[in-house]
Each structure stands twice: as structure tokens, then as C-alpha cells.
Amino acid sequence: MSSEQAMKGAFNADPAAKADAQARIAARVANGTLANDLMRHGPGEASWAGELAQASDAMRLPATVGIPAGIGLLADRVLVGMARWPEERHAVAQALVAAIAPGADLVPLAAAMVLAMLDAPELADHLPHDLAEPLRHLHRRVLAGETVPRAEWSALRQAANAAGDQGFLIETAAWPMAASRAGVIETFNAAGNLLGGAALHATGWNDADEAQVRAVFDSISSDHAAQRAAGETIDYRAIFAARQPELAARQAAAYGAMSDAMAHWARKVAVQLEAALATAGQR
Fold first, then answer.
1. Exposure of 135 by Cβ count < 10 A (0-12 exposed, 13-18 middle, 19+ buried)?
2. How far is the C-alpha of 145 from the C-alpha of 4, rounded, in Å?
3. 38-52, 72-86, 120-134: which has the minimum mean pLDDT?
4. For 113, which DSSP code?
5. Residue scoring higher pLDDT (42 or 245)
């Protein structure tokens, strides 16, 4: 973002530009053309970020509406995650625009969102305290206006990497977010995957179950090789359910629990994002 764009802030400090953005998102909602994905969507559709940028390139968001690309892409991601609640998703899409004050400085918002996600109660039992607290401290220093030396970020990432799977989310979030388009989105995704995986395993589903499913699908593929070669469509899921009904039912329940956890995470972050956007306008 150029110094001029950063100085003007959201909607380039123009209330008329905000009103136009609100009207365009509202129109997308009303006519059913608000897409889930910035790059992959049907003819005549656009995602939240794509509509505001007026392009399939989030890097245009700072110039067009004074919104950092990472924040626009995070909005897209949470709206994708809320697809099972279409009415609520549409309300959130409009509320996110409404929350932004013309002229608000949104550059620090990515770091603020990472802090909000790290502080979510859902993650309390999944983050190693000896790594999570130093990470929070680094992002707080950034929000206070300090330039944190690259070596400090790197040292924390190395410590998180050494912690293995337990440190993955910390390693993902240990970057200066204002300079990264993807950092806040990757943090959102990593946290969602962590919560989804925990929900999956809480059902009792494990690696041995996964291996058994793969073996069944390999067997189905082998048994129907001639049909596949002839171009026939094989309904793997139906055959799997018929051959292994108990395993299929357990898999459906386990993956359903994972999907539920990830959807509720998106819903949670949508609330956090709306609040952070509104707060930015008060600074």
C-alpha cells in the first residue's frame, strides 16, 4: 500500500465510496451472485473481495477501496466457511462493509486479527503456552508501533518448528502480518484445520480407519477397472457404503464433526473480523 493510500485509509476516506461498495455487495446478495471464491466462480459472479476490488486480484483492494489484500481475502475465506448458513453469510458480507469507517487505517488489522484468533477460547487447549505467549507479545509490539527485528520472528518460528505438529499454528502465525498478503489467511486456515482435526479424532477416528478406507476404495477401483476403462461412472461412495456400512457410517460421523468444527471457526472469525473492522474506525 502506498503512503498516500495508507494515509487516506479505507475507502480512501470517501463516504460516497463506502456507500457505493455497500450498494454493490447488497446487489450481489440480492441477485444471488456473491461467489465464494475470488478466482473460481461462475459467469457474472464475484466474491466479496473481488467485488470491492472490481477485479479477480486482491492486490487491487488497497488502490480501489483502501483495504489490505489479506483482510479482503480473509473476508472471502470466512464467508466460504459459512456456506451452510446462507442467510447469515449474506448478512455478514454486508455487515463487514458497514463496519468499515471511511478513512480508517486497516493496515494493522492483520496483526490484530491474528491476536484475536490466538486468544479464542477454542484454541486454548491446542497451543503450547511457552510459544503462544511470545508470539502474542511480538504482535502486540507491532501494534504498538514497534518494528520487530526479523531475527526475533525467525527464532520463534524455529522454536515452533522444533515442537513438531504442536507448534505448527505458532510457526504459521510468526510473521509480521502487515507485510504479508497470506499470513492472516494461513493462520485462519491452520487454526481451522487444528480444530477440525481435534473434532475428527474426538470421535475415535484414527489412522488405521483411514488406511482401511483407502484399502476398500482401492479394492473397488480394481474390481471395476473394466467399467472405468469403458468410460462408465463408478459410484464409489455407494459401493463403499454397501460393502462396509459400519465403517462408512463412522467415517461420515467423523468427517461431519470435523466439518462442523471448521464451519463454527469461520463463524467465530467472522464476528471477530467485524468487530476489528469497527474498532479500526475508532482509532
1. buried
2. 19
3. 38-52
4. H
5. 245
Please give the grid coordinates belonging to residue 282: 475508532
DSSP summary character for residue 57: -
User: Letter for the amino acid at 30?
Assistant: A
| Helix or strand (DSSP H, E) at 70 | helix 69-81
The three cell numbers locating residue 1:
500500500
DSSP 2: -
**Looking at the predicted structure, is the pLDDT value of residue 94 above 80?**
yes
Q: Rounded to an integer, what distance in angstroms lies between the CA atom of residue 142 and that of residue 146? A: 5
What's the CA gap between 101 and 65, in Å, rounded? 11
The burial class, CB within 10 Å (0-12 / 13-18 / 19+), for 11 is: buried
For residue 248, CA distances in Å to 1, 196, 199 come to 50, 19, 18
Q: Kindly tell me if the per-residue pLDDT of 3 is higher than 70.
A: no
User: What is the distance between the alpha carbons of residues 117 and 97, in angstroms, rounded to a whole number?
Assistant: 20
Region 31-48: mean pLDDT is 86
User: Could you say which DSSP state residue 232 is in?
Assistant: P
Give the start-to-end residue ranges of the domains of the chain: 3-99, 108-283
Q: What sign does the CA torsion over 86, 87, 92, 95 have? A: positive
Tell me which H or E stretch contains 66: none
Per DSSP, what are the bridge partners of residue 46? 34
Q: Do residues 58 and 52 touch, judged by C-beta distance below 8 A?
A: no
pTM: 0.91
Query: Side chain identity at 162, as an amino acid letter?
Result: A
Would you say residue 38 has pLDDT above 80?
no
Q: 13 and 102 in contact (C-beta within 8 Å)?
A: yes
pLDDT confidence of residue 118: 96
